[in-house]
Amino acid sequence: MKTPRAHKQTPQTSRSKFRSKVSLLRGEILTRIESVILGVVTSLSKDEAPVLVLPNRSSWANVSFDRAIGLQMHSEHSVTSIRSDCPSSSNQIHFLCSFVHKWEYFCIVCLHRDIYYNNTQLFVSQRSVDSIVDDISCMLKIPRRSLHVLATSKGLISGDLCYLEEDGTRIDCHSSAAIPVSSNISGIRNIVSSAKFVMIVEKDATFQRLLDDDFCTKLSPCIIITGKGVPDVNSRLMVRKLWDALHVPIFALVDADPHGIEIMCIYKYGSVAMSFEARSLTVPSVMWLGLLPSDLQRFGLHIHDFLLPSPRDESKLSSLLLRPYLSSQPEWRKEMELMQQRKVKAEIQSLAAIDPGFLTNIYLPNKLLYGGWV
After folding, report:
1. What are 262-309's pLDDT values in tens digits?
2. How are beta strands 223-226 and 198-201 bridged, if at all?
3. Cα-based angle 359, 361, 363 (whole degrees, multiple of 5)
4. 3-state class of 208 per DSSP?
5. Would 49 disulfide with which of 85, 95, 114, 268, CB 3.0-4.6 Å?
């Protein structure tokens, strides 16, 4: 008996199916937004104060840890109720729902700042818009990029990487100057790279130093990216995109202090506030390359090169040691306990006390060559 031949899918068929899928997604988004607005109108028709019920995005009780995903929000989670006759936050959310609905209806992409400048008196600050967009996304159970609302990126990227933006613009990251991380990560396509690894750099100052020293071509082809401290969502999405596309090791270079460690954990395990989008934001394979607390004596740093932890540092470190994901990282815990015992911390820049070129010429090459990560 002959094996049935597979139906050959033509480009027209593929495009047709893609358009149908997009239309279905848009229809679902519009339906969910309209359901929220209908609830508001129904309450008003009964002379009742409309109430919005939002998942509580700040509670650790609402998240669980999965080694393959990171921190993710429970399906059964505590909620926060916002009444329209209370503070202006509910008015902001109502306005944003109608604004997003308009953009979804006309299928146009807008930036967070577009929403803010549309009504600066209502929103007061750009940060409030960012938080409300995430609340709306979490409430509707729809990634915010699917709402056609994008945020301006603060991150930078450089190295052996080329790709196309959604509008067809070709981006080449080989330049000695840094390239801003895209505001539309989901639209990136045709990624081309020979990078052997990706390195997340905590601070912009360290990132710029690596650029100045031509780090990305000296050792082996690689990609470096920084979120300039606590990473924005686009920087996290970009790291995840590279991990999915290139299947190369992902390293983190952060200060040997509690805040650097927490930033690294955000890339690897996610954050409580964005746990509802964990699957697209976390990179569970991230490895801690440096600066390790155990490196401080190994590389001959003197006590005057160290910094004394503040009470806030000590409190942050204690809270980190209680995080659920530390049980799966005994080597990380060991390094953090060493920091706690010695009561010292150090910035990456402290390596310059040994030699101005120590970071790029000795420290990182040796770490990468001999497997000095945890």
Report:
1. 999 999 999 988 988 888 899 999 999 989 998 887 776 655 556 788
2. parallel
3. 45
4. helix
5. 85
Residues 280 and 197 in one domain: yes
Point out the domain boundary residue: 126, 150, 174. 150
Instruction: For residue 327, give both structure tokens.
Output: 């049980």
- 161 contacts: CB under 8 Å, gap ≥ 6: 172, 173, 174, 191, 192, 193, 195, 223, 242
Peptide bond into 364 cis (omega under 30): no
Q: 348, 229 in Cβ contact below 8 A?
A: no
Q: Which of 150, 165, 191 is the last residue of a domain?
A: 150
Name the residue among 72, 57, 61, 70 with its Cα closest to residue 265.
70
What does the alpha-carbon distance between residue 352 and residue 358 come to, in Å, rounded to a whole number?
6
Domain that holds residue 91: 19-150
Domains of the chain: total: 2
Long-range Cβ contacts of 318-327 (<8 Å, 24+ apart): 320/258, 320/261, 320/262, 320/265, 323/265, 323/269, 324/64, 324/65, 324/71, 325/65, 325/67, 325/70, 325/71, 325/265, 325/268, 325/269
Confidence category of residue 1, pLDDT binned at 50, 70, 90: very low
Unique residue bearing structure tokens 């010695």: 342
Q: What is the pTM of this model?
A: 0.84
Pairing of strands 170-172, 179-180: unpaired
| Cβ-based neighbour number of residue 200 at 10 Å | 27
Please report which residue ranges of 141-284 form alpha helices under DSSP H: 204-212, 215-218, 233-246, 258-269, 278-281
